[in-house]
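I hope you will forgive my troubling you with a question about protein structure. The matter concerns a single protein, recorded as an amino acid sequence and a row of backbone structure tokens. Please examine both parts with care and let me know of anything in them that strikes you as inconsistent. Here, with my thanks, is the record as I have it:
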Amino acid sequence: MIRHRMPRGFNAWVAATVGADLGAGVLAFALTWVASGYGPAAASAVLTLTVAPTVVFGLLGGAVADRFGARRVMIICTAALMLISATLALVVGFWSVSPAVLMVAAAAIGTVSAFHRPAVGVFPRLFVSDGALGTAMARVGMASQVAGTLAPPLGGLLIGMIALNGVAWIDVLGCLVMVAVLLLIHPPLTPDTAPEAMTVGGIVAGLTAARRTSGVPTLLLCVGIVAGAVLPAVFLGIPLAARERGWSAAEAGLIEAGWIAGGLVVGLWFSWRGTAVRAWRPMAAGAMVVAVGLLGLALSPTWTCAVVSTCIVGAGVVIFTAHVFPTYVLLAPASMLSRFQSLLILVQRAPQLVINPLIGVMISVTATGPVLAGAAVLALVAAVIVASDRTLRSFVPTAGAPHQKSR
């Protein structure tokens, strides 16, 4: 592992990411919390409307970023998110909150995010050489994870103090800072733009290229297994296992915190020391670590054992993703970075729309233990798939050569 020095503009963007993601996370919690006051159907609708547009518009979002450039799309999308939050704050402040208002806000945020996320995913590529990309993406992931950890408790505190409109104004502030930073910084590398990207042919060309690029289908399959099947088992399995085994809500919260803690520790290590050069090894090892943690969670007789198990799962997930995501970006053609990124996001999100209710049914029929054990087997399958791919086993990022054109 090699430590890399990041450009000043990159560090400023990472710092702004903490604030912007924290504002977005606090608002997301507040929307769901307020919606839950109208019943589970309203809360479920709000949550679904924030995710579904990513699936519907994700491929188009990647095409837009390839056509106009990641930085420009990020500026426009962040400004749009700021406008949505400001409008929500004014509507709630001067009129009232209703399920319809919450659902419209959730759908608007989800739609803009469908265009925003692919651009964000490839933006680090414009700052560093191939060899430093793993470290750069680990730092961005660490910033988002810190914000994601702080957002729920902070949102719970703020919604009681300043209500939904006040929380929306906090998100406006986070977006404003991010727009200012994006306008001030200029990445040292320029992306290859693709004028044809937004056509149907351009989108299809991106899908075809992903299918034909050696190593990419394997990475997409493994991400689909881990994000689409394994992680939903964890998200649903923790609260359901707690109720099934007689653990308290506080103990269930500590089990959930173990998942976060394990990921934070490993993410901090990679953001400081960098990622492995032979990325396939930690990819496979990370999936195996996830499997060990899931098996431990399936068999945990006490909540303390479950905490240790979720720490292991969280660590394994970050070991896996910290090497999968940079490798995926480096394998993508320079003119299709965002289209490839949108496909990666689609593979993570789309299966959850089916898997989440399916896992709920399976647990109600069998119990949490067998379902979590089955998820552990799937994680091992992902490890085997990675280790079997010749392209991934031979892939080594170039330490000094940029993947894009220098300014």
